[in-house]
User: Fold Endonuclease III from Taibaiella lutea.
Amino acid sequence: MTRKDRYQFVIDYFSEHAPEAETELLYDNPFQLLVAVILSAQCTDKRVNLTTPVIFAKFPDAESLAKATFDELFPIIKSISYPNNKTKHLIGMAQMLVADFNGEVPLKVEELIKLPGVGRKTANVITSVIDEQPNMAVDTHVFRVSARIGLTLQAKTPLQAEQQLIKFFPKELIHKAHHWLILHGRYVCVARSPKCEICGLQQGCKYFQATLKN
Assistant:
């Protein structure tokens, strides 16, 4: 199977079996999604979704969060990984939104990455989810799954993986392909013991063909 054929196989499979793939983070607007994505770094979406309703009730917008103190926000997110840093990042992010962006979440990667707690991956998530921009957020799941299947070749960094994925996925599918790969990595192609026996991608997966078929 050529690389082009492998991409088409993956597209065909997920288009049939996960046509409405989307983020599992719960949010009602771009500000809420940005807060949730910042919190989700090295933390499960389930844990984030248990935490954000309290945050959104008390701090419904950038203006209110910008006025929050560390001692007000920290107790709410203390069950999240790295709560000290994330408390500082969230307040700093909100303050910059108010100061530089009129309280609105910008939808350009180069502007988003200026915000505290926002790296390239988070910026790609925001722009692809909110605006369906052709940006590929590469987290540990996407990095692992794309390499195992053979969508990426010898990618050593998330950026290298991102560049390969956006080159070969059709532009109009990139925002959805992120969710295909991350959800597949979360529930099927897990890190330690991938569930190859239930995976529908066996025929097109380099890992399965090389490691487990025999």
